[in-house]
Amino acid sequence: MTMISDLLNIGNDIRSVVHSLESRSSFDRIHLADLLEHIGQVLKDTGIKISLGQHPGNHRQMELLSEELYFKLAFVVGEVKAHNISKRLMQTQRIELLKSELSSGFGAFEHALLEEAATNFIDTSRFLRMN
């Protein structure tokens, strides 16, 4: 459950960073919004696959998304903060950590937390599009 809690915390951190931003170019905001929505969808898909007893297999995709997140966030919040957030996202996707957590059980509570983490990313994406 640590991985899922970390994902939830990362989503909350990104949300608070984005909400505290002063105006940025709409180009930067839209690209960051697209990326956050994509991450949220990958997390939702992961939760569905795990619930069905399937191996999520999204490790490489999340690795690429975390790298992209760094570059998009760096323009908005600076390189140091962007590096810290993207590194944390990447660490949650380590295969051995995922396997360990899945072997200890993935029930309704864990699925709800993963869904909440996905929703954080998607809601932040919507916020960026509307402001």
- Specify the structural class: mainly alpha
Tally of contiguous helical segments: 6
Which blocks of ≥5 consecutive residues have pLDDT under 50? none
Query: What is the makeup of the main sheet?
Result: none
Amount of helix? over 70%
Q: What count of structural domains?
A: 1
List how many beta strands DSSP finds: 0
- Identify the overall geometry: globular
Q: Cα distance, first to last residue?
A: 33 Å
Query: H/E order of the elements?
Result: HHHHHH
- The fraction of residues in strands falls at under 5%
Helix-strand layout with pairing:
Blueprint: H1 2-19, H2 26-51, H3 59-77, H4 79-91, H5 95-103, H6 108-130
Helix pairs in contact: 1-6, 2-3, 2-6, 3-4
Summarize the structure in words:
The chain has helices spanning 2-19, 26-51, 59-77, 79-91, 95-103, 108-130. The chain has one domain (2-19, 29-130). The longest helix has 26 residues, at 26-51. With 131 residues, it is mainly α. Helix 1 packs parallel to helix 6 (108-130), helix 2 packs antiparallel against helix 6 and helix 3 (59-77) runs antiparallel to helix 4 (79-91). The chain has six helices and no strands. It is 82% helix and 0% strand.
Describe the structure concisely for a colleague.
With 131 residues, the chain is mainly alpha-helical.
